[in-house]
UniProtKB/TrEMBL annotation:
Catalytic activity, EC: 2.1.-.-
Species: Variovorax rhizosphaerae
Family matches, as InterPro entries: Methyltransf_25, Methyltransf_Superfamily, SAM-dependent_MTases_sf
PANTHER family: METHYLTRANSFERASE
Name of the molecule in the record: Class I SAM-dependent methyltransferase
Top-level lineage group: Bacteria
Ranges where the Methyltransferase domain occurs: 24-106
GO biological process: methylation
GO terms assigned for molecular function: methyltransferase activity
Annotated TM spans: none
Keywords of the record: Methyltransferase, Transferase
Length: 182
């Protein structure tokens, strides 16, 4: 089932940016691998996915909501979270909602497939591949802490990923420090 393995190394690497005990929204959460990671670190987690099977699997980690966020309304209105996590998912009409859901002082951790992936596997449709710099543009208004756009192996894929903080006055000192060693 989608989202049932280990958490993304990118998410783990930058998870120290999430305020202690903060709220985390996992968009297209699948079986809840990131919900499990953050709940285990003492965060209050919420996941949303359209699959009833995924929601059933993720429900043991926190609050879950089954919703078709592509064909229905954004289910969180003006709610904001201390972290918004998205991996292996892209639906461009939601990008502004996802970024707006990051609370002041909160962090966006986003990682998904990018242009070039069509040369090594799926997804291969342009609708599901970020174009160069697209994630940076979508995150305008956030302070970029880390950004990558390129090829990763094992498994072979092209990705864009970002860790970005919504300013809340001064940027917390810990946001500028190197992440803890894994």
């Amino acid at each position: 089932m989608h989202g049932s393995g280990a958490p993304s190394p990118w998410v783990v690497r930058w998870s120290h940016l999430v305020p202690e005990g903060g709220s985390v929204l996992d968009v297209a959460c699948g079986a809840g691998r990131h919900m499990r990671w953050f709940a285990g670190s003492g965060h209050v987690v919420t996941g949303v996915d359209r699959s009833p099977e995924a929601i059933a699997a993720a429900s043991s980690f926190g609050r879950v909501l089954q919703a078709d966020i592509e064909d229905g309304p954004w289910p969180f209105g003006g709610d904001q979270f201390d972290a918004v996590v998205v991996t292996n998912y892209l639906w461009r009409p939601l990008l502004h909602h996802i970024v707006a859901a990051v609370a002041p002082g909160g962090v966006l951790l986003y990682e998904t497939f990018a242009a070039g992936n069509e040369t090594v596997g799926k997804p291969s449709r342009p609708d599901f591949l970020l174009q160069p710099g697209e994630l940076l543009s979508a995150s305008a208004g956030l302070r970029v802490i880390a950004y990558e756009d390129g090829f990763l192996d094992s498994p072979a894929r092209f990705v864009q990923r970002i860790a970005a903080v919504r300013p809340a006055g001064a940027l917390p000192r810990h946001a500028l420090e190197s992440p803890p060693a894994n």
